[in-house]
């Protein structure tokens, strides 16, 4: 791929972690690979629209019904705001990891060193309750690496979909060779093979979307199985944590990655293997 960006092998290391992209877009960058969603990339993506049909890929905010990773259940309170009952308001409590969500740049850092993207110390990230009396005067610590930076820039581009379930099952003619609710690794070689089979080619700034079977497994499960998900240690299929995967993701210069699996990457990682969340 022709690009002015460094290749994966040209990126420096941070301690034991290879492929450190800190500084690629400057020491004060707030966007990471979302920088790849340039006006030119978005305009080129728009040229591929054929029908204009939209498809919602979001999970509901209350899905799964019993939240994973020990998070609180979202709640909604509706109430009447005038005596004649003709106007209503809602109040919503939601953990930002509920349903579908983007993991921001200060969601998961490098635990061993207590730092986040661009070598940002954990102590520089605001903790505790935030009171926004004036949205125009939010302090710098609260804004740093905040997901509002992505919202202001926008995440709009060309989505590329890899249906690993269809790939592994030969279009449904054979069973899926793994349980999406177990620790199973999908290697980069399989992602490449799936793309080739589907006739998918990648462009810089693509948003990679991978289907690995969580939803199909959930919808076919009993109520007892669904509720039991949150009562046991989390274990899910996902992309493999290795150099080939990091090289695949970086050298294709994806702007973002999404999946139907709760953690995108295999969870948990084998002992001694760094999580992709860290890099």
From TrEMBL:
GO molecular function, one term: arylformamidase activity
InterPro entries: KFase/CYL, KFase_sf
GO biological process, one term: L-tryptophan catabolic process to kynurenine
Signal sequence residues: none
PANTHER family, alphabetized: CYCLASE, PTHR34861
Similarity comment: Belongs to the Cyclase 1 superfamily.
Protein name (Swiss-Prot/TrEMBL): Cyclase
Taxonomic lineage of the native organism: Eukaryota, Fungi, Dikarya, Basidiomycota, Agaricomycotina
